[in-house]
Amino acid sequence: MNNVLAPVLIAILLIISGCSNNGSSNAQTGVYPGKAIEGVSGVAWALESDFNGELSGPLVTEATTYFSDDQTLYAVDTKTGEQKWTHQTNGGILKPVLVEGIVSYIDKTGIHALRAQSGELVWERERNKDTMIAMSVGSLNHILFHEILEDGRTTFKALNIETGKESWSFGERVLSTPIVVGDKLYIPSMDQVHVLNEKSGKEIDIIEMKMQALSIAVRDNLMIAEYNDFNRSIHAFDLKSHDHKWEYVLEEIEGMGPRANMILLDDKVLLTYVRSGEVVMLDGKTGKELWKKVLGTPWFAHIYGGTFNDPIVAEDTLYISVWEGQNEQRKAYAGYSTLFALDVNTGNEQWRYQEDDFINYSPSLIDNGMVIVTNNGIKAYKGGSNVEKSDPAPSNED
């Protein structure tokens, strides 16, 4: 990469990576359709050795869990942890994507697609030396990704999942990861959100906004956008009429407002601010604040980039892992992670489970269990009556 291209790409990659909810549809929306687990009764399996570097975020299905270290993509049985296949990569990768039985991933050489069952290579798309490929999501028929050109233009492209051939491309200043909802794509670009047909790439609608959206979330007839303003304000739009419905601004902001992760539920909007530790639930129709909590230790945001990982939701339960405690050797660092289960309607704690290692990404729910990635490897929890491993740790509430 030449010296002119490098700083431009770094700035753009930071914007894009901050907006990504990469992976399956559950991971992208943050909402899982299965049953909530009532606690962690133990560990079903754990793989905690012989990895080269940190692990990527996992792509988890009921049958198979996919993850990688700096050299290898692994496929293991989700129920047992038994290895199904491995595939050598060219350095570390972003979280893999699964579409129609094909697992794809991005590394420093380009995009690669494998058969999900066997790991057999299906196709590859090499990266041009004057471009950068950043982030990908899966849709009904395509692998979707950003291609960043030498002059800083960012184009959004769709590759046919079976052949790897380009189906269509869109835009020159696409800095945010799109939201995939059925056969539609919602792509923020400057002060507009473009709605495309996923199969053809044809633009079918444009939603005008007063400012660039850093990220968006879509469910049913509601779109939530986080503006790139001083307050990082949250705005709700009706997708049919395009009417602006409400605005929410997090109170007591010192300096530039923190970035929000947004999850849309049936009638609510969940906002989580990883750097400040705030968890906020809003009424989806009015934007009224229903409840707010502060989790974790603010100091840890300077070390880990946040006080907790992005949450997930199943039924009426919110799951979120928080860095807590104190490292005995490095006093300014956390000592462990705690997995909290909160009631979606009230914010009240249902249970907690102390993980003696650190949980590095959002957890992934499976049938009567949960898969997590830690500093030392990857493991699956067994759902059931919760094992109380620690005394309740303090958290601040409004």
UniProtKB/TrEMBL annotation:
Keywords: Signal
Signal peptide: 1-27
One Pfam family this sequence matches: PQQ_2
Residue ranges occupied by any Pyrrolo-quinoline quinone repeat domain in the UniProt entry: 49-127, 157-375
InterPro entries: PQQ_b-propeller_rpt, PQQ_rpt_dom, Quinoprotein_ADH-like_sf, WD40/YVTN_repeat-like_dom_sf
Record-given protein name: Outer membrane protein assembly factor BamB
